[in-house]
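Lecture notes, unit on protein representations.

Consider one protein chain, 115 amino acids long.
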Amino acid sequence: MLFGVNNGPPTSQRVVTKTFKEYLNNFMKIFLYDFTIYNDIKTHLQKLRLCFQKCKEYKINLNPSNCDFMVFYGMILGFIISKKGKLPNPKKKHAMVNMPIPHNSLQIEIFNQML
């Protein structure tokens, strides 16, 4: 879908969510155009095959250069996701710790908007 079109991203999100609704929160997460398939290593290929079949059925094209397979941890929406769970990005954590202390209401408001 062209993202210059009016309502392109929401329509694309709706199509992808409807396509993979039976897999969501079972072994798959979606955020706009990012798919994450998570499970144990024994069933990973089976789950990938299911997702590829859905992509083929609904004519969803994947760009191989943007695909990563068998990744044990990764960065998603500013968090590091791994077997240990969701961890904060160390760079963002460092920035928060070293941020100057706000001294007035405007600085507090700006700080809250950054979170």
